[in-house]
């Protein structure tokens, strides 16, 4: 990459944090800008120039890409941040800009696990049996799909508070997931949880609850990932760096 190159890193994940560091080391001659949705107030310091907030759809993103003379977009957003990923794919296709998407491998069940798969949060919510005590690891925007169920107990965990209060008697934990399956098992046990509901986020940082559910033989309701448009993808940080290097070598800059 050259001094005229400018990489846009769509951030919001742990991998994006590590990528920011490694991209700036590997492509030290290029500009790098990281972008956050701005949902979480306590943003990590990536040590690279950062912008925050939506771009304004495909049109806004396209204008940003042109104005900032972006030469490569790296989409390292969460696997469920599908709107951002779709917008990036559309804008890059229209402007003929290279795009690399970091796509963590999905979690998969083991033979003794009891997993049910759902396309939507609504479907998972409907399938919870009356009287269920559900651990809802679903995010502040999605919790609304469960709060109409006045015949279940919900233990909701998310980083930022939801826009609406939870039903009376439910519990809310404002925290990141523990990475200890022992801690997660204690949490599930202490709340008498009967069902675990989770997005299939993949990666190691939110996996402990899956292991804890396995130990406690609890059914897990898994929300499958949204479909995304075709893109050049890499499964991990090293893969993204290799693809970025390949693009650089190809353009001969
Ligand atoms: P989304 O539906 O893909 O994004 C909604 C809008 O937020 C986008 O259209 C875009 O606004 C803006 N946006 C998202 N990521 C951005 C980024 N990196 N830089 C600038 N703008 C960004 O995603 P979401 O509503 O944030 O989250 C959807 C799901 O992903 C939830 O389950 C959430 O828990 C999970 N998640 C998201 C993030 C994240 O950083 N976004 C992190 C962890 C988990 P414009 O259209 O105006 O450009």
Task: Describe the protein's architecture and organization.
The strands form two sheets. The chain has a six-stranded parallel β-sheet with strand order 3-2-1-4-5-12, sandwiched between helices. A six-stranded parallel β-sheet has the order 6-11-10-7-8-9. It is elongated. The chain has 253 residues and is of the alpha/beta class. The longest helix has 15 residues, at 237-251. The protein is built from seven helices and twelve strands. Helix 6 links the parallel strand 10 (195-199) and strand 11. It binds NADP nicotinamide-adenine-dinucleotide phosphate (NAP).
Mean pLDDT: 95
What structural class do the secondary elements suggest? alpha/beta
Morphology call: elongated
Helix content: 25-40%
Q: What's the total number of strands?
A: 12
Short summary:
This protein has 253 residues and is an alpha/beta fold.
């Amino acid at each position: 990459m050259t001094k005229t190159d400018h990489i846009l890193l769509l951030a919001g994940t742990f991998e994006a944090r590590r990528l920011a560091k490694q991209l700036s080391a590997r492509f030290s001659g290029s500009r790098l800008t990281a972008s956050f949705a701005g949902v979480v107030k306590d943003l990590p310091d990536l040590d690279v120039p950062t912008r925050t907030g939506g771009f304004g759809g495909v049109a806004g993103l396209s204008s940003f890409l042109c104005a900032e003379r972006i030469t490569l977009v790296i989409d390292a957003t969460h696997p469920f941040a599908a709107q951002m990923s779709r917008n990036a794919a559309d804008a890059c296709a229209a402007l003929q800009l290279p795009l690399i998407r970091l796509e963590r491998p999905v979690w998969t069940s083991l033979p003794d696990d009891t997993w049910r798969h759902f396309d939507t949060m609504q479907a998972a919510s409907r399938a919870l049996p009356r009287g269920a005590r559900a651990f809802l690891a679903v995010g502040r925007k999605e919790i609304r799909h469960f709060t109409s169920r006045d015949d279940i107990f919900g233990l909701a965990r998310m980083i930022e508070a939801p826009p609406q209060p939870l039903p009376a008697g439910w519990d809310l934990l404002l925290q990141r997931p523990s990475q200890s399956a022992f801690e997660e098992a204690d949490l599930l046990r202490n709340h008498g949880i009967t069902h675990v509901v989770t997005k299939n986020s993949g990666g190691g940082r939110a996996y402990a609850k899956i292991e804890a559910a396995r130990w406690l033989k609890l059914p897990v309701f898994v929300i499958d990932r949204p479909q995304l448009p075709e893109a050049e993808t890499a499964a991990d940080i090293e893969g993204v760096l290799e693809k970025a290097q390949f693009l650089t070598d190809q353009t001969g800059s």
